[in-house]
Amino acid sequence: MNHENRNIEHKRIWKDEYLKWVSGFANAQGGKIYIGIDDDLTIVGVENLHKQLEDIPNKIINNTGVFPETNHLTMEGKDVIEIVIEPCGMPISYRGVYYYRSGATKQEFRGAALHQFLLKKMGLNWEDIPCDGFTLDDIDDGAINYFLDHAIDEGRMDNESRKSAKEDVLYNLGLIKDGVPTNGAVLLFGKYPQRRFVTSSFKIGRFGADDADLLSQDQIEGNLIQMTDKIMQVLSSKYLIRPIHYEGLQRKEPLEIPEDALREIIFNSIVHKLQFGTWNQMSIYDDHIRLWNEGVLPEDYTVETLMSKHTSKPRNPKMAQVFYRAGFIEAWGRGYEKIMKAFDKANLMRPEFTVEQGGVTAVIYREIFMSIRGDKHPIQTDIKSNQNWIKTDTESIQNDTKPIQNRTKSEERTIILGAIKNNPLITMDALSDLLKITKSSVQRRLDALVKEGRLRHIGPTKGGSWEVIE
Fold first, then answer.
1. pLDDT band at 63, cuts 50/70/90?
2. What is the pLDDT of residue 415?
3. Residue 164, SS3?
4. Does pLDDT of 236 surpass 70?
5. How many other C-beta atoms can be found within 10 angstroms of the C-beta atom of residue 357?
C-alpha cells in the first residue's frame, strides 16, 4: 500500500471537511481518498458501510459538482471505501474557496495565485486577454520598430517584416484580438503601460547599512521591450562602477558586473514575472545586488533544475517569444548556463538564485566594487589575457616592490600610479595601507603627481575618482 503522496490521501473516518481534498484533487491531477485507513497505513475499516457508500458521493456532488467513483474494498478482512477523483477541466471550489493538491498537502488559492489558476483552468493566459480601453493608437510605433530591428538583426524575422503594418505585427505575434491589443501587447509595446498596469515598472533602490537605510531610488517606466536598456543606462550612470584598465594602449571601462549576463538576468526577471503581481525590485548594497520578481517556478522545477539542462516553461509564452525573437533570451532554457559562463569567464563568484516570498531572487556579488573601495580582503582577479595592468589584490603590488625602508618617494609615486590605473576609485586609506605610510604622506605624493601632470582628480573633493595621464 502506498503512503500519502500527490495522488493518495488516507482518512480514518469520513468528515465533511474532506470535501476540501476533493476540490484539491479535482483542480490538480486527480487522486484517491481511502476511508478506513489511518495515516500510518493501519487498516481500521469503516462503520455503516452501505450508508456511507450512498452519503459520501451525494455530499461530493452537491457541494463541489464533482462526480466521484466510489468503490468498496476489503483489506485485511475490513471494509474500506475508495473515492476516485478525476482531474477536472473546470475550476472546482468548496464553499467558494479553491484548493489544489501539491505534493502530499492541500493548498488554498488566494490573490494573484487564484487569478492565475482560474485563467489557466479556462484555457486562458493573462497576456492573451484583450486590454479594454486600449486601441492601436496606444501602441508605440518606436517600440515596434525597435523590436523589428533586433529580430531582423538576429535572423529571427525576415526583412519584409519592416513593411508590415503595426496591426499585422501584433497579429503575427498573437497579441491582438478583434482589433484590440492584448494585455501582453500593451505591456510590451504600449506608449505608457503603467496607465493600466501600475506595477509593470521596475524599482531600483540603493541601500546603506541596512534595509532601513535607503540612500536613493529610481522607478523605471515604459514598455517592457525597451525597459532593460533604460535599466542598464540608470545602473551604469548612477549605481554601478566602470573601473578603468588598459589592454596595451587601449583604454577599457567594463561594467563591474558582466554586462551581457546582467542583461540576461534582468530579461528573465521581466519575462517570468507574474505580470499582474507586484513590482520587480532591485536592491543594491555595497557587497551585493538582490533582484526579486514575483512568480514561483513551474511545478516540479527547482533552482537546481534551472542550473542544469531543462525545458523552457515561460509563464507568459507569447511575451517570452517576443523577447526570444529580439535575441534577448534563449528558447531552450540555456539562459542560466550563459549567465554562469559569463561570470566564470570574468573570474567572479556566480550569482545565486533562490525561491522566496512567492517569487525568485537573484543575488549578484559586487566583488570588484568591494576590492576597488579598499576592502581589507579584496578578491584577486586572475587575468587570462595579454592585458598590461596590475592585479586588484594590493598585496601583489607591495610584494613586487622593494622593502618599505628602502623605497624612494619617486618609487612610492610609481606604486600609487599603478594602483590608481587599476583602481580609479581607490581610497586614501587603501593607499596608506598599501605603502605603509601615513595618509598625509599619501596626500603629498598625490599632490606631487598632480603638479607633475601625471595624475588628475575627477569629481568632488570628497569622493570622485583619479585618472592617470599617460
1. very high
2. 87
3. coil
4. yes
5. 10
In the block, residue with C-alpha cell 612610492: 412
Rounded Cα gap, residues 277 and 294, in angstroms: 6
Query: Is the CB of residue 142 less than 8 Å from the CB of residue 222?
Result: no
Higher pLDDT, 427 or 388: 427
Q: Which residues of 182-211 are buried (b: 16+ CB within 10 A; e: fewer)?
A: bbbbbbbbbbebeebbebbbbbbbbbeeee
Q: Sign of the CA dihedral 112, 116, 117, 118?
A: positive
Q: Mean pLDDT across the stretch 400-422? A: 71
Q: Is this model's pTM higher than 0.70 or not?
A: no
Q: Is the dihedral of CA 460, 462, 465, 467 positive or negative?
A: positive
| Residues in contact with 56: Cβ distance below 8 Å, sequence separation at least 6, in sequence order | 14, 35, 68, 70, 81, 83
In this structure, how many other beta carbons lie within 10 angstroms of the beta carbon of residue 177? 15
β-strand pairing of 31-35 with 8-11: parallel
* CA separation for the pair 455, 81 (Å, rounded): 87
**CA Rg, the chain, in Å?**
31
Residue type, 413: R
454, 279 contact by CB (below 8 A): no
More confident site: 453 or 433: 453
Residue 456, helix vs strand vs coil:
strand
List, in sequence order, the alpha helices (H) in 208-253. 227-234
Q: Does residue 50 sit in helix, strand or coil? A: helix
All three cell numbers of 405: 625602508
Torsion of CA 300, 305, 309, 313, to 10 degrees: 50
